Amino acid sequence: MKFSVLRAVNGLAVVMLLLTVNASAQSAKRLILTDGSYQTATEWNKVGDRVKYFSAERAEWEELPVSLVDWKATDAWNEEHAKIQAEELKKTAEEEDAVRKAEESKTPLVAPELRLPAEGGVFLMTEVAGKTVLSKLEMNKIQVNDNAAKNMLRRTINPIASQQQTIELEGAAAKIRIHSPNPAIFVYVEDNQGAVSGDYFRIVRLERKKSVRLLAKNKTSLTGDQSQAEKSLHSRAERFSGDWWKIIPLENLTPGEYAIVMQIGQDENAAAWGFGVDK
Prior knowledge:
Helices cover about 25% and strands about 40% of the residues. The protein has helices at about 1-25, 70-105, 150-155, and strands spanning about 30, 40-45, 50-55, 60-65, 110, 115, 120-130, 130-135, 140, 140-145, 165-170, 175-180, 185-190, 200-210, 210-220, 225-230, 230, 235-240, 245-250, 255-265, 270-275. A hairpin with a 5-residue loop joins strand 3 and strand 4. The longest helix has about 35 residues, at about 70-105. Residues about 1-25 and about 150-155 have low confidence and may be disordered.
């Protein structure tokens, strides 16, 4: 334990020394001498025919004759160095600001002292007992039920009847329940599949059926024509911050089962996050 403490103390001392040296180097100026050499100093004063300066290299006061200093060259070098240093500091500040903004965009503020997490996900924001809370939704497995037996029976009764296929989510009810008819919805999606637009998001009201929730019904006619029926709600999606999107319901969500569906391209690229609304 003593060894660890000593090592930590020594490490801290090294860091402090490096910071001190770095700060001294940044504030150091040059006294340019008439022979072309120079002394690195943090400050100096003329006292009669002598110049007293604090050496940045040796950290002590020293002096030399005024006549040995090329004051014109000294002023020119220090003015130019100050400009370069100011530009470097400005560039560093801009880079740090850009990094800070990029990091903040990953965890945007959605309410006082409430931010979305950097790891992403899908969240509902509601009020619970007067407090704003975020509820994370789990992605549901989308399964396709071909209803083979029913389709066979339907064709037996009516040879020209269309085939029906249902898109379902496992479970009769979602685990996450809210009591708000108009939650704010936040979805994190990286643009690794090309440009993402608000058209890729929708809120769908689900139909309970035994141990599943129906997301949509597909029909295929005898001629191959396909149609899909689902109960999508009016909503608007807009980019909120960075890779975060905000989905805004444009109508109240009555009690029942719902899913946030994100679909990029074909059906196999769809993803759904279910939730329930209670009274």
